[in-house]
Amino acid sequence: MHADTTHPFDEATRLTPGADGWTCHTHDAYANMHGPFGGVTAATMLGAALERAGAVAQPVAMTANFCAPIRPGALLVRAREVRAGKSVQHLAVEMHQDDGTVVASASVVLAARSESWAHQVPRMPDVPCASEVAPLDTRGYRLAWLQRFEFRFIEGAPELGRTPRREPASAASTLWIRDAPARALDFKSLASLCDTFFLRIFQVRGVLVPAGTVSVTMHFHAGADDLARQGERPLLGRAWASVFRRNFSDQAAQLWSDDGKLLATSTQIAWFKQ
Amino acid sequence: MHADTTHPFDEATRLTPGADGWTCHTHDAYANMHGPFGGVTAATMLGAALERAGAVAQPVAMTANFCAPIRPGALLVRAREVRAGKSVQHLAVEMHQDDGTVVASASVVLAARSESWAHQVPRMPDVPCASEVAPLDTRGYRLAWLQRFEFRFIEGAPELGRTPRREPASAASTLWIRDAPARALDFKSLASLCDTFFLRIFQVRGVLVPAGTVSVTMHFHAGADDLARQGERPLLGRAWASVFRRNFSDQAAQLWSDDGKLLATSTQIAWFKQ
């Protein structure tokens, strides 16, 4: 049905206009443990907000809430304008399963951004080029979505065992990352990439435990021109965490262009058991 | 009308049940440049979510979006349950001006949290006790809300001039902070305290420029018992920023109990001009 050249990410986030919002479908290529990879769910909701706004405004901030497990099949996406100011627009998005269950919601802030005084506080970490770092071999992993990204770990690659570590490992990871197959960066894929960092609980404890992202917030510091300049080349990603307590953990991340511009920062809260 | 013992924060965040949600009123004691201090707006919406949920669940995450300037007067607050799972509840809150304008919205995640494996990555910065740090003299400042907090700066106190600095100053601040007059900590005041860090653009440039928070996300890492233990004593706060670009800047913050527990982490995106 689709041309051979359609990237699976574009298939997975495709919105078909309907009488009451849009429909989209879960995509096998992005299947996670229970339902689709959250980055695609967030990117789909961002796409709906951008469609609804239909303007020159670009995303500044987004919070996506994962409310219920998503079953394979059709999803209904609705986006409404909460408030449009002179240069800032607020949208609310909800994604429903066909039985009416809200499976995800999002608030999206769009803005017409212009040049201003500029300053970036942190410098990109001093790391080897992406081409000098071997990609993670994900062929042994069961989860389909892991095949849809190229992960080149510099620090904090997943090391999972059968029993938890005695002492918690570092919660930090640094890696080059991009879509697989390669795809030119846009706001939707930047949002999706913000959610590609494996849950820190797995890394710190060294085992898989029941866990999942509950809410993720993304702040976009780049314009469409910055993303176009980055194109298909890998981004540098950094992720870390500060607290694991009473079934929840935070997680923070940065995504850098390969010429040292901080394109997005992200925080999330994840549930875990044990 | 109120007993002499009512704290201005409780007056400012008071919700009166109505036929269609709650009403509240802006409070002169928390007036900011244009409309009320955002922390009180966020705390009021959190209060509505907690009222609506009415359960033993506690806040885990909240994103508050400031959509339009708030004029002095009455506000209508509506909270609806988006989804209630076994242990996690998602709520959506909207605050309206009397002409129907949505002035603020929020998504709130509540959860029934239980004991689990626990680990805190960062240690509280090694700083002098609150009693050893002089409070900021806010009597010279015009903004009422500044009188409602006690700021004891260890690093990064506001230093504002008439012209911007030649070189950007550090974006980091470290300070002891609490309500003034002192008030026992609860989730509403913890949310409010997350928004008390002066916008980083003022500090980095050393001047006041037109600026305001657009969206703030708070992650709560503490239980009601932790907050009760902290009581009225000052919290240690840290704030920093990473990017100022095209009219927007991010800002991150931590709030620590005085015995070294990270109680909340927060990120926000703020608009600025120039």
Number of domains of chain A: 1
Identify the CATH architecture of chain A.
Answer: Beta Barrel
CATH class of chain A: Mainly Beta
- The gyration radius over C-alpha positions of chain A equals 18 Å
User: First CA to last CA of chain A: what distance?
Assistant: 45 Å
Give start-end ranges of low-pLDDT stretches of chain A. none
Number of helices of chain A: 5
Per CATH, the superfamily of chain A is Acyl-CoA thioesterase, double hotdog domain
Structural summary, described in words:
2 copies of one chain form a homodimer. Chain A has one domain (8-112, 131-272): Acyl-CoA thioesterase, double hotdog domain (Porin). With 274 residues, chain A is α+β, with helices and mostly antiparallel strands. In chain A, a hairpin with a 2-residue loop joins strand 1 (16-18) and strand 2. In chain A, helix 2 runs antiparallel to helix 3. In chain A, strands 1, 2, 3, 4, 5, 6, 8, 9, 10, 11, 12, 13 and 14 form a 13-stranded antiparallel sheet that branches. Chain A is 15% helix and 38% strand. Chain A is built from 5 helices and 14 strands. The longest helix of chain A is centred in the first third of the chain and has 16 residues, at 38-53. Chain A has helices at residues 8-12, 38-53, 187-194, 200-205, 224-230; strands at 16-18, 21-25, 58-66, 74-84, 88-97, 102-111, 119-120, 149-155, 173-179, 211-220, 235-240, 243-245, 248-256, 262-272. Chains A and B meet through strand 3, strand 5, strand 6, strand 7 and strand 10 of A and strand 3, strand 5, strand 6, strand 7 and strand 10 of B. Strand 12 (243-245) of chain A pairs antiparallel with strand 7 (119-120) of chain B, so a sheet runs across the interface.
